[in-house]
Design brief:
Layout: E1 14-15, H1 18-25, E2 34-39, H2 45-53, E3 56-60, H3 67-73, E4 80-83, H4 92-96, E5 103-109, H5 115-124, E6 131-137, H6 138-144, H7 155-163, E7 164-172, E8 177-178, E9 185-192, H8 202-212, H9 220-223, H10 229-237, H11 252-260
Parallel strand pairs: 2-3, 2-5, 3-4, 5-6
Antiparallel strand pairs: 1-8, 6-9, 7-9
The chain binds S-adenosyl-L-homocysteine (SAH).
């Protein structure tokens, strides 16, 4: 049994089910041309599979108490660099630029309380991360993959779907972890979309999405007061809707069309 004091504040629930760990590592084409960034290796369960498949693995672990376990486990592994720091604080670009790989993927069973900031940080990196395999809390997975006109659909859905095609792969029962969390998890695969030349002004699009969802229960007319409502209405009218709808009615494509017409 693992000698480790599990820390709730770091979202520590280690995956113990070997079948599931193997499925996560093998759900996409990680190969020797791939640099994998792992966030939160824990005791290295998933890491063991990743170093076999990938050219190089850089792992970020915030909990220095795991250092001994990880160092013992990987003392003979030469394609792994473990950085004992908060992924959110670290200058990750400097670490990545030390290596030169065709593909950069992120694979992580991430601490659930920081899922969104982690996703944002990955997207904002100066290199393009082509794929992300993440295990998240099931409800969060539903939010990321929600369809318009559903309760789970929000600005984060539109934001992430602007950059990635997101697939739900499989559900992982809470019983597969130690300690056992209160919720089930889901594994998602994010695949980068081709750079969109359909968007005139990306910054404006992202701001529009954020503002449109500012108050979930309010209509576009209220949330987008500071925009040229007449121009927005004109676009909406093409689809037989108007400013009295809520942002949750609008698919990503319509946000793009509106922002291009502002
Ligand atoms: N991947 C392992 C552990 C998952 S638990 C497994 O599947 O078994 C989440 C891990 O993320 C823990 O090891 C925790 O210490 C680490 N962690 C939490 N916050 C972090 C942060 N900000 N940066 C890096 N690692 C973090």
């Amino acid at each position: 049994m693992l000698e480790h004091n599990f820390k709730k504040k770091f979202g520590q629930n280690f995956l113990t089910d070997k079948g599931t760990i193997g499925k996560i590592a093998n759900c996409t084409d990680i190969d020797k041309d791939t640099l994998v960034i792992e966030i939160g290796p824990g005791s290295g369960n998933l890491t063991s599979y990743l170093v076999e498949l990938a050219g190089m693995v850089i792992a970020y672990e915030i909990d220095t108490d795991l250092k001994k376990i990880l160092e013992d486990k990987f003392k003979n592994t030469d394609n792994l660099e473990i950085i004992y720091e908060d992924f959110l604080q670290r200058d990750v670009m400097t670490d990545i630029l030390k290596f030169n790989y065709k593909k950069i993927y992120v694979v992580a069973n991430i601490p659930y309380y920081i899922t969104t900031p982690i996703m944002k940080k990955i997207i904002d990196l100066k290199v393009e991360v082509q794929k992300i395999v993440v295990m998240v809390q099931k409800e969060v997975g539903e939010r990321f993959t929600a369809q318009p006109k559903t309760r789970a659909y929000g600005s984060i859905t539109v934001y992430l779907n602007y950059y990635f095609n997101i697939k739900r792969l499989f559900v992982v029962s809470r019983n597969s972890f130690i300690p056992k969390p209160n919720v089930d998890s889901i594994v998602l695969l994010f695949e980068r979309k081709k750079v969109s030349n359909l968007v005139n002004n990306e910054e404006l699009l992202l701001k529009l999405i954020k503002d449109a969802f500012k108050y979930k229960r309010k209509t576009l007319r209220n949330n987008l007061k500071n925009y040229d409502l007449e121009k927005i209405n004109k676009v909406l009218n093409k689809y037989n809707i108007d400013l009295n709808v809520r942002a949750e009615e609008l698919p990503l494509e319509l946000f793009i069309e509106i922002s291009n017409n502002l």
